[in-house]
């Protein structure tokens, strides 16, 4: 468990859980364990590079919208090379709402992509937006595309097809 600042070098997490708040004064590698920033929740900073293999898991907890105090944050001063699993869980009965966003990852540069993203269920009509994870490390809550929206889109498509047929001379 990390509390405070490590003395440098490289932290290797190859099994079990490597967790805590504070600063790793070098690089960190996750080759099959679980990295869990914070102390439910909190922030872990890595002064060097962070690398996670396909066997590794990054576990992030969310209990509110304030980074570091209400949800976990992993800050990497160097390059973040991510693979494996991102597992997100909700704490203390917290239920995200439309428009909430969570700044989970901060990094100088990013390569790779999570193979699996495990997200908790949201309330009716809500969905997770993971599109910003790779660029700025943010997970957001958006309205789920509803049946009305899909029906409206289908209606517009039918109208345009019919309009094109009417406009085109035979």
The radius of gyration over CA amounts to: 21 Å
Query: Can you summarize the main beta sheet?
Result: 12 strands, parallel
What percent of the residues sit in helical stretches (DSSP H or I)?
Answer: 10-25%
Would you tell me the overall average pLDDT? 88
Spatial gap, N to C terminus: 76 Å
| Total number of domains | 1
Judged by helices, strands and strand pairing, the structural class is mainly beta
General form? elongated
State the low-pLDDT regions, or none: none
The portion of residues forming beta strands comes to over 45%
Order of helices and strands: EEEEEEEEEEEEEEHEH
Count all strands and give the number. Answer: 15
The number of helical elements comes to 2
């Amino acid at each position: 468990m990390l509390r405070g600042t490590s003395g440098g070098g490289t932290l290797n997490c190859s099994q079990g859980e490597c967790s805590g708040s504070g600063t790793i004064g070098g690089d960190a590698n996750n080759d099959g364990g679980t990295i869990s920033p914070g102390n439910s929740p909190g922030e872990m900073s890595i002064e060097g590079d962070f690398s996670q293999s396909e066997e590794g898991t990054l576990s992030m907890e969310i209990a509110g919208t304030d980074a570091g105090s209400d949800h976990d944050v992993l800050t990497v001063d160097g390059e973040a090379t991510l693979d494996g699993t991102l597992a997100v869980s909700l704490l203390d009965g917290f239920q995200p709402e439309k428009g909430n966003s969570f700044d989970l990852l901060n990094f100088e540069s990013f390569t790779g992509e999570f193979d699996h993203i495990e997200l908790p269920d949201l309330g009716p009509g809500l969905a997770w937006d993971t599109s910003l994870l790779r660029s700025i490390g943010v997970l957001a809550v958006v309205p789920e595309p509803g049946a009305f929206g899909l029906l409206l889109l289908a209606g517009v498509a039918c109208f345009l097809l019919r309009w094109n047929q009417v406009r085109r001379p035979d």
